Amino acid sequence: MASSFIKFSLVTNNSELEEYFFDQKNFAKINFVKNKHQANYHLCLIDLENDLKNTSQVLIELYQYCRENNQKLSVVLLHGQKLDTEKNKYLKDILDDLSQQKPLYRLLIIPCLFINNSAVVELWFNQLINQALFKHSVSVSQKGNFTFNPLSVSDLENALLKSTFLSNTQGQTFWLLGNNFK
Fold first, then answer.
1. So what's the pLDDT on residue 123?
2. Is the Cβ–Cβ distance between 76 and 92 less than 8 Å?
3. Cys-Cys link to 132, which of 86, 118, 138, 162 (CB 3.0-4.6 A)?
4. Sign of dihedral through CA atoms 149, 154, 157, 163?
């Protein structure tokens, strides 16, 4: 492994994404590891379409670990087909409550993530693309209501690095959107 990789520990409630993120060939600059003791930077990736049982507790424990060890934490909220602003607010409120006037988190909200060439991960947008390609069927709104802004994994990697290493990003919320198409 090249020494230019930056280690991030990863916790997530999506086992398919976890497997994808731990496969080093999928990332150019970040090496994701399972053990938080092996990294100075940490990512909590929460798939809001998956089961959220224990998610807030895992987030609280990771936040406390980062505070005790003076380390940086990034939290990604990955939405599915519907944007759930109540879950955004609930999890942001937890982060703000934990901050105690000195936030150390960066919150990245992704309405639509696309993973190119993955047989492992079945995100809703990937399913939509596969449906269009292989079943020749896709729902289209006559009113133009289906607008997508898919973000690629490489764009997520770049945003994660920028939000982690640029100054004054702690406590900030970033909405990550790809190019708009209907």
1. 60
2. no
3. 138
4. negative
